[in-house]
Design goal:
It is built from 14 helices and 8 strands. The protein is α/β, with parallel strands linked by helices and 355 residues long. The protein binds nicotinamide-adenine-dinucleotide. The site of nicotinamide-adenine-dinucleotide has 31 residues, from helix 4, strand 6, helix 5, helix 6 and helix 10.
C-alpha cells in the first residue's frame, strides 16, 4: 500500500491555455486580466514572431522589446524597464523560451505588471515564481509571488520551429525538474504525480521529435510534459542538479539547456545511490539505473554529453566545485567539494554514470 507522508500543497496558481492555434487567444487573455496595453518581449531571434503578435494585438500592443538575453543580465533588464515605462504598457507578453520569460518576470516584479506568457521551449520558467538574474558575473535566484506569471498560453504550433537539437536539450532540461521534484524535501503526492506523467510524456515524445521534428503529436506531448515539469519545478525545491547548472550558467556562461542535458545523468546517478526508490519513475520510463538510463537516453537523442565541448576548461572544475559547495541547496545525498569535483569531471569527460 502507498504510504502518504504529511505534506503541504499550494495549488497550481496560473491560468493555463493549452492547444494548437491558441496564440489567437492572447488579446482575450490580456482583456481578461483587465489590462489594456502590452509590451511584447522576445529574443532577437524571435523578433519577427513578436512583431507579428504585436500586429495581431493591434491597439493593445504598446511596442516590441526584442533584446531578451540568456541568464537575465541586469543591463538588459534596465533597458527593458525604460522601454516598458516609455511605452505606457500595463502588462507584458513574453513570447519565447526561458530567456524571454525571465525578462518578463524581471519587469513584472519591479513594476507590478501582469504577465501573459507564451512559452516556445520546454524550460518551464512560466510555471514558477523563481527569477534568476545575472549581475557582475554571478547569477542570483530568488522566489517571490510577484514573479509568477498570471496566464500561460501553450501553443503547440509555436514549438514546431524549435530546432531538434534545442528541443532535445530543452526536453532534458524539463526532465531535470521532474527528476529533482521526485526526491525534493518538500515534495507532495500531487507534484509526484505530475513529475511521473511528465517523465513518461518526455520519454515518449523526445525520441519521436529526434526522428522527425515535424511530428505534431510528439511536439504536443513534449509541450504537455514540459508544462508538468514546470509545475514540478514551481511546486518543489530543487537540489544538487539545479545548483550545479546555476553555477555553470551564472559563473561560467555555460548554455542553459545543454548544461542541464549534460549534467542530468551525473547528478541523478549521484543521488540514485541514496534514493533509488524515489527515482523509480525514471528507471521505469527509460529502463535501467536512473543515471545510466538518462545517459543512454541522451546519447540516443544525439544530445551533447561533455562539458568540455562548451568551453569549460579542466581548471574551471575546481572553481565550479568550490562555488557549488559554498552556498549549497539541500540534497538527498550529502556531498563535499571533492565529490562534486569528481561528478563534474565525469560530466566534463562524458563518462557514462554507473548508477
Ligand atoms: P532561450 O529562451 O534562451 O532560447 C534559446 C534560443 O532559442 C533563443 O535564441 C530563442 O529565441 C530560440 N527559440 C526559442 N523557442 C524557439 C522556437 N520555438 N523556434 C525557434 N527558436 C526558438 O532558452 P531556454 O532554455 O528556454 O531558457 C534559458 C533561460 O531560462 C536561462 O536563463 C534559464 O536560467 C532560464 N530559466 C529560468 C527558469 C525559472 O524558473 N526561473 C526555469 C527554466 C529556465
Amino acid at each position: 500500500m502507498m504510504r502518504i507522508e504529511p505534506f503541504a500543497f499550494a495549488g497550481l496558481p496560473s491560468r493555463v491555455i493549452f492547444g494548437s492555434g491558441t496564440l489567437a487567444q492572447s488579446g482575450a487573455e490580456i482583456a481578461r486580466l483587465g489590462r489594456k496595453r502590452a509590451l511584447v518581449l522576445s529574443t532577437p531571434n524571435q523578433k519577427a514572431d513578436a512583431e507579428a503578435l504585436a500586429s495581431r494585438l493591434g491597439d493593445v500592443a504598446a511596442g516590441v522589446f526584442a533584446e531578451a538575453t540568456m541568464h537575465t543580465p541586469s543591463e538588459v533588464t534596465e533597458q527593458a524597464l525604460a522601454a516598458f515605462k516609455a511605452s505606457g504598457a500595463d502588462c507584458v507578453v513574453a513570447l519565447g523560451g526561458g530567456s524571454t520569460i525571465g525578462l518578463g518576470k524581471a519587469i513584472a516584479t519591479r513594476t507590478g505588471a501582469d504577465q501573459v506568457v507564451i512559452p516556445t521551449t520546454y524550460a518551464g520558467s512560466e510555471m514558477t515564481n523563481i527569477l534568476g538574474e545575472t549581475a557582475r558575473g554571478e547569477k542570483v535566484t530568488r522566489r517571490d509571488p510577484s514573479i509568477l506569471p498570471e496566464t500561460v498560453i501553450y501553443d503547440v504550433d509555436l514549438t514546431l520551429t524549435l530546432p531538434v537539437p534545442l528541443a532535445v536539450t530543452s526536453g532534458l532540461n524539463a526532465m531535470a525538474h521532474a527528476a529533482e521534484a521526485l526526491y525534493a524535501r518538500d515534495r507532495n503526492p500531487i507534484i509526484t504525480l505530475l513529475a511521473n506523467d511528465a517523465i513518461r510524456a518526455l520519454a515518449d515524445a523526445l525520441p519521436a521529435i529526434a526522428r522527425d521534428g515535424g511530428d505534431r503529436t510528439a511536439r504536443g506531448t513534449a509541450l504537455y510534459g514540459a508544462w508538468l515539469c514546470g509545475a514540478a519545478l514551481g511546486g518543489a525545491s530543487m537540489a544538487l542538479h539545479h545548483k550545479l547548472c546555476h553555477t555553470l550558467g551564472g559563473s561560467f556562461a555555460m548554455p542553459h539547456s545543454e548544461t542541464h542535458a549534460i549534467l542530468l545523468p551525473h547528478t541523478i546517478g549521484f543521488n540514485a545511490v541514496e534514493v533509488p526508490e524515489l527515482l523509480r519513475p525514471v528507471s521505469s520510463a527509460l529502463g535501467g539505473a536512473p543515471g545510466a538510463a538518462l545517459f543512454d537516453f541522451a546519447v540516443s537523442l544525439g544530445a551533447p554529453t561533455r562539458l568540455k565541448d562548451f568551453g569549460l576548461s579542466e581548471a574551471d572544475l575546481d572553481r565550479a566545485a568550490s562555488i557549488a559547495v559554498a552556498n549549497p541547496y539541500w540534497n538527498p545525498r550529502p556531498f563535499d567539494q571533492s565529490a562534486i569535483r569528481s561528478l563534474l569531471r565525469d560530466a566534463w569527460e562524458g563518462r557514462r554514470p554507473a548508477h
